[in-house]
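User: My instructor asked us to take a sequence, write out its structure as tokens, and then describe one feature of it. I'm not sure where to start. Here is the sequence I was given:
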Amino acid sequence: MTTNRYQGLFITETILGNPNGSFVNNEPRNIDGKVFTTDKCIKFNIRDYIHNNYEDLEKLENFVFFYPRKVPNSGLQPKYLTKEDVFKEYFDNDITKLYECPDVRMFGGTFSFRKNDQGNVFGPVQLTFGLDLIGAEIKSIQMGTPFANETGKQKTLGEKYIVDHAVIAYDININPQTAIKEDGTSLLKPEDVELFKEAIVYGTNDRVSTSKTSKSKLLIMIKFADKYRRNIGELKGLIEVKSPKVNNADGHEDLVLDFVKVSKKLKLVNSYIEEIEVVKDVNVVIENFDTETLGVAKDLLTMNIIGQE
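Assistant: Let's start with the prediction itself. The structure tokens for your sequence are:
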């Protein structure tokens, strides 16, 4: 099991797309025009990535429990199994087998299959809602069809909503002590943390739809010493985007992020930091986030490029 606490940051970018549409009209989620996203859209990216790349139904390995399962032979209009159906079909109503699911070990869940099996598993891995850092503006566009109406004119399907340019940041908190099994060990395994890091980056890049489209730009994971138990608070609001908003015609080369305030906060707890892993897109520039600014040893900071083997 793993006992180390982690905190981290995940940053995505959406240009002329919808980072997280609402259920009402698929408009980008916002409060008074200020764009935000839910943690669920990122969690789905992670589950979808594990399902597509690691799940083995025959051996029931890496089974993603909270994932839509189609009813067999349901036709062109597919129907989906209920939670109870999935539990019965794949787990023979054995609730202990849920702990073999990586998404349950990461994010927990609410279970009420039978009277004696009701309860919650609090997820060791928590993500905050995403916060737009650049002042994204919501735009509406008219959509047409290739078919004409009765007068011979092209039909209009209606409106779709997108953002011009959003840079969205999420805080990550991993606390293995929040989910302890009856034998005293943590529900979360060390390999779950590695799988989480891989899936959040590549699963988000894989997701392209009219309601959820973002590209992974930066993942930072801070591993604290085993004895460190405190949470240092949110970091996403401390990031400053120094590059301008994208001109839709020109695009942009680099996304420049200033981490001077993040570094200042981390420097207060640098003696408890075991490792800082940075995974970034090649076109992301991070300012004021180096060993000198952070006050940590040089070999504690590693940098990787998204997509680089």
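For the description part of your assignment, you could build on this observation: The longest helix spans residues 190-206. Try explaining in your own words what that tells you about the chain.
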